[in-house]
Amino acid sequence: MNTGSGPNLIMAECAPPLVLVTGASGFVSTWLIKELLEKGEYRVRGTVRDKSKEEKVKPLLELVPDAKYPLELINANLNDKDCWGPAVEGCTYVFHVASPFPVGKKIDESVIVAEAVGGVVNVLAACAESGTVKRVVLTSSVAAVSCGMGGIPGYADDYNYTEEDWSVEDSCAPYEKSKLKAERAGRDFVDKLEEGKKFELVVVNPGYIQGPLLSAASGSGTASVGTMLLERKVPAVPNICFGIVDVRDVVAGEIAAMFTPSAAGKRFILNGGTITFKDLAIVVRNEFQTQGYNIPTGTVPKFILWGLKFFDDSVKATYPGLNKKHTWSNERMKNELGVTPRPIEKSIIDTCYSIIEFGLVTKAPGYLGPPESRNKTSADAPETAEQPKPDDDVPETVEAKPSDDTPEPKPSDDAPETTEPRPDGDVPETAEAKPSDDAPEPKPSGDAPETTEPKPDDNVPETVEAKPSDDAPEPKPSGDAPETTEPKPDDNVPETAEAKPSDDAPETAEPKPEDNVPETAEAKPSDDSPETPETKSTEGDDD
Q1: Which of 35, 183, 310, 446 is deepest in the core (most CB within 10 A)?
Q2: What's the rounded mean pLDDT across residues 285-293?
Q3: What's the CA gap between 264 and 257, in Å, rounded?
Q4: Are the C-beta atoms of residues 448 and 439 closer than 8 Å to each other?
């Protein structure tokens, strides 16, 4: 018995399945690796072009620091068929996500198509030779589904694309053509495999992928539309439709495609919804215009785009869909993979915040940050009153002034709570708001001793209903007060030019006219009163 190989054999048999993710530093791959590591059910290996590039590798290694099985990285290049044997060795499942993404106005079609097609064939050939790979999920695109279809008779302007549709190769721009030909090449390769080398192939076709980045290095393609709008790189937008899907829903769809038995051999459109470029720009404007970003929402005339398509391949790719209301079905995604997509508006906003946070777009002077960070900040702020009470609205200051939040002027914000307003509106602020010590005992106001100059606290007995006593022969107005037929909160105010009470009179021996009289005829709160919790909007309310 070979005791030396025993432990290694046992470890190999007990170890969880090994999963390969190609293009590990890309947008989708980064999220996919994170999700797989967090599950803790698989060992994960990712491919990168150069492990020495810290800006790409470090974020990957920090995705899940406490992962049960640490991420393994290996060098691999789509054009190098010899590197894929070691990359695939020992793997049970392979997510082939890597694909060339063009940057620039003019793209060399022969280069991008050759790299995309060659990459798919190289990876699948290594899987066939491995003897261990059971299933491959190939990430294609709706570019392989709907490109150029608008020019074909029978396809209405509001056509709903399904997995049965294929793009028209001759009408595709270079990137769209690379996705179409790569998907077809993959299918053809697997179909022609001899029986002993066959494995299952599933294809996913996501729409335009949006959502938060996990690193600055992963956001080139995803950030393009958000960057264009936030930096106002264009004065207006074309009238075209987008099929948009959140990256987190793409990852959920990819994992379901890998581990759902009935998905073998099928194609799945991954789409969260459809939106026009103009409406997309309006979503961004509504969120970021007040934060210092000038978002274009006008529409580019068709004749201008017709001329631009000869110089810009991205315009050429979108021109056939101009002024059309196409949609992309996600029924198979929801019903067979069990993925319910997020609202696309949320995905768009999350993308924009993400590219700003990672420095792909400059932070404007008025930028507030993502709503979740603002909510966290506001949670640390001093507590504010949720339901203001009569005595909550007066800030403690040397000169307490009426609050702007009081629905109606009340006699005193510091008086004990009662169901009806009292005629003691001029009671000065005290620790317990009790009647004056000069009163022998609390009695109705009718029994109060006569004075020639009534003081604010002379006539304030503490009673249940705070009404004048029924024992008084007849309630008469004070000689110094304006004539009234029944006692009011201002009956005890000495006669002045505008003799009305002020809720905020400071403690003085004798009230002064200017202290007790608001500057309006209707005794409204002073405009100089400090702001209270409801006059200031708490940061974070706008989400």
Answers
A1: 183
A2: 97
A3: 8
A4: yes
For residues 201 and 190, the answer to whether their CB atoms sit within 8 Å is yes
What residues are paired with 95 via a beta bridge?
A: 21, 137
Is residue 181 one of the residues assigned to a domain?
yes
CA–CA gap between residue 148 and residue 145 (Å, rounded): 9
In a domain, residue 229? The reply is: yes
Domain count, the chain: 1
Cα 384 to Cα 228: distance, rounded to the nearest angstrom: 40
In angstroms, the first-to-last Cα distance of the chain is 67
510 within a domain of the structure (yes/no): no
> For residue 509, what are the CA distances in angstroms to 300, 430, 492, 512?
74, 14, 15, 9
Tell me whether residue 476 is one of the annotated catalytic residues: no
Q: Is residue 86 classed as helix, strand or coil in its secondary structure?
A: helix
The pLDDT tens digits for 39-97 are 999 999 999 999 999 988 999 999 999 999 999 999 999 999 999 999 999 999 999 99
Q: Between vectors from CA 198 to CA 192 and to CA 200, what angle results, nearest 5°?
A: 105
Residue 73 forms beta bridges with which residues?
Answer: 46
CATH number at residue 255: 3.40.50.720
Q: CB of 274 within 8 A of CB of 327?
A: yes
- Specify the 3-state DSSP secondary structure of 14: helix
Residue written as token pair 């990876």: 123
Rounded to whole angstroms, what are the CA distances from 443 to 137, 363, 467, 493? Answer: 88, 67, 11, 20
Q: What is the pLDDT of residues 17-28, one digit of tens each?
A: 999 999 999 999
Arithmetic mean of pLDDT, 502-516: 44
State the pLDDT confidence band at 326, using cuts at 50, 70 and 90: confident
Can you list the pairs that 533-539 forms with residues at least 24 positions away whose Cβ atoms lie under 8 Å?
533/384, 533/385, 533/388, 533/405, 534/385, 534/388, 534/405, 535/404, 535/405, 538/378, 538/381, 538/384, 539/368, 539/374, 539/377, 539/378
Which domain covers residue 322, as residue numbers?
14-379
Q: What pairs with residue 18 in β-bridges?
A: 43
399 has a pLDDT exceeding 90: no
Beta bridge partners of 94: 20, 136
Q: Are 460 and 437 in contact (CB under 8 A)?
A: no
Residue type, 23: G
Q: Name the H helices within 40-108.
A: 54-61, 84-88
Give the total residue count for the chain.
543
Of the candidates 152, 153, 185, the one whose C-alpha atom is nearest the C-alpha of residue 167 is: 152
Q: Which two tokens stand for residue 100?
A: 């060339």
**Closest C-alpha to 116, from 71, 172, 162:** 172
At 314 the pLDDT is 65
pTM for this structure?
A: 0.67
In this structure, the number of other CB atoms found within 10 A of the CB of residue 41 comes to 13
Look at residues 120, 117, 80, 142 and name the one whose alpha carbon lies nearest to residue 201: 120
Q: Which residue in 56, 177, 179, 309 is the catalytic one?
A: 179
The radius of gyration computed from the CA coordinates of the chain, to the nearest angstrom, equals 37
Structure tokens given for 207: 């729409």
Q: Is the dihedral of CA 154, 155, 160, 166 positive or negative?
A: positive
